[in-house]
Amino acid sequence: MVPESGKITRTWGKNLFYLPHGITVDNLSNTWLTDVATHQVFKFTQNDLKTPSLVLGEAFKPGSDEKHFCKPTSVAISHQDGSIFIADGYCNSRIVKFDSQGNFVAQWGTSSNMAQVLSTERNPGTWLIPHSILLIEDRKIACAADRENARVQCLDVVTGDIKSLFYLPNKNAGAYAIAYTPENDGRLWVATAYPSAQQTWNGGVTVFDMHTMNPIGQFGTKDLNRPHDLAVDPKSGNLYVADLIKPYTIKRFYNGNYSYTKKDEVIGPKEEPLTIGNLPNSIKQLLNSSVLDTFTPVLIASLLAAPVLAILSVTLCIKLRRKKYSPEPPAVWWRNKRNRTGFKRVRQDDTLPLDSEEETTDSEDDDVLYTAIANSKKNAKC
Q: What distance in Å separates the CA atoms of residue 132 and residue 144, rounded to the nearest whole number?
């Protein structure tokens, strides 16, 4: 793509990926990509963009060991020794380090829980979707966007110790992507987004001072909806932000003028949305349903809960009416003494052996037996 005009000059990678997520070009012009569908990281040399020269992870086999990932999101490469740092990712919530040949070196981080996110205690070193990673080699740190914890964590590239934390002013926002520029003792650029009450997305870019770790400005709130990635041109200083809302544009912010954008700064389709293309139906559903978004499971759970609550309400009303017009049930004389001879619990999963002696709880047996007696009496009356 030509930066000045946004004209696409070349495409590649057809039939190589399923859901590419993060892309990085190192100082030797090698291109690195993560694929969250295959759980892999790929390296391509400048002269061969058809066959990867290095593949980390096993296709379609998620895991959390030294040879497997679970939806890795981003990769950063050291300009000094070629070390590989991977943000892993949607499932594992860890940072993994490899040497230049792809040999495992170390991993750092544990998963945050939702209670920590909702409270003021977001423990350093815990992650909730490390979504974007970069190296600041003169400071010997790797920084990663801790998306759902609304912050950026920077750690020592050797020990993994947390060196600095950058918290977004809006705790409800997600830290989606980061970039770094060395001027003025260092600036950290963070693409942020959060859902509004009107079921739309509000986005922007927050700028932090690397020395004080405090935010010093924000821009793009009127131009960005749901920024998902960003990059700074080291030559011009212009900032490029990829917006995940249709029509899926890339927007350019000129160096020194980040307070607004002009119409001609939008790169990409302006009217026609970007089509998914001839992908497998499963991948189309994955893209269209936005299952990678943290809030989607909450929405699905809410939709499933609605009919369940309705059924429970009707059941409660029926029971209340029956209680009003029916005598009290007989005493539950079997609660403290019963004979289980000849009965065996039905196996419901693969975790128990076929001859398991695990028994049902008292409450489960009582409910089943009481229901059977009630039904028999009901049938007798009919």
A: 5
